[in-house]
């Protein structure tokens, strides 16, 4: 029964580390740009869009579809960076074990 207690204790330690990591990552921000920096997006580790900057030059030509594409590209890239960062940190703690419900 001692081995089972050790396993449960290790699981609890890992759970605490993961909870702490999730909080730390949620407080971080990730930025990406598109269109040569004409559109910049900043997201949180919670995958929330925090800030969107659009250079006035991006709308000068009146090409709304291009602007929409630039916004989507910047936001998606920032989200991808945030997600990959979280996955890297989670893998470091879990030793590469895929945990259900974790990114």
Spell out the key features of this protein.
single chain; 103 residues; alpha+beta; 59% helix; rod-shaped
Helix percent reads 55-70%
Mean pLDDT: 86
Structural class: alpha+beta
The end-to-end distance, rounded to whole angstroms, is 33 Å
Amount of beta strand: 15-25%
Rg (C-alpha, Å):
19 Å
Shape: rod-shaped
- Total beta strands: 3
User: What is the spatial order of strands in the main beta sheet?
Assistant: 1-2-3
Q: What's the total helix number? A: 3
List the secondary-structure elements in sequence, H or E: HEEEHH
Low-confidence runs: none
Short description:
It is built from three helices and three strands. It is rod-shaped.
General description of the model:
- The protein is an alpha+beta fold.
- The chain has helices spanning 2-27, 57-60, 64-94, and strands at 29-34, 39-44, 49-54.
- Strands 1-2-3 form a three-stranded antiparallel β-sheet.
- The longest helix has 31 residues, at 64-94.
- The protein is rod-shaped, with a radius of gyration of 19 Å.
- The two termini are 33 Å apart.
- 14% of the residues are buried.
Map the helices and strands.
Layout: H1 2-27, E1 29-34, E2 39-44, E3 49-54, H2 57-60, H3 64-94
Antiparallel strand pairs: 1-2, 2-3
